[in-house]
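quick one before i forget lol
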Amino acid sequence: MVPGLAGLFLPKVFGAEEIVRIDAVVSHIEAREGLEAGSAGLIASFETAASIVRCEEIAAAAPRVSSLFGITGPNGDAARELGFEFTLEGLESLYARSRVIVAARAAGLHHPVTGVWQDIRDLDGFRRFALDARRLGYRGMVCIHPSHVAVANEVFTPSPETVDFSRRMVAAFRQAEAQGSAAIDFEGQHIDYAHVKTAQGVIDLAESLGL
């Protein structure tokens, strides 16, 4: 535990009690070392059947939990535990991946991550793996090799076109809202508060990345 530490990655979590105990230990060390309380988050990794069954409890076990890692790559611990055979289509792990996302969102965790892709040379396969994860609701990828980092950043960073569209949408809606409207026709699409909130999320992410 040192100043500036963003968080701790917890492999093979089984249940919420582990999170509570680790949270207590980390809190004690923060106080002992004079570090800001709660400054280091916890990323819980779902590599066991038991953890997936208890993912909602784990996600809400402590305020320090900052993200969930739904591991669904080929031939890893999760595949062995659950007995599935990995495919790029991902139907064999769709339930587990989806449940981790729902647990994260229900606990107010908006940046669930997934992975990993062991093939350090098949970047096209990794890109498809990452794209499927993003479409499902994951917001980042755990990379096992430096060659994957650029692709992950590309996939999970909103495109300039998407950011521009979102900014124009929000601006048009706010103008209409000021005139008493709660829904507009924006470039042929029906837009209301739900769409604006989604677009604002894209804008916030882009701005956090300096875009």
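fyi The chain has nine helices and seven strands.
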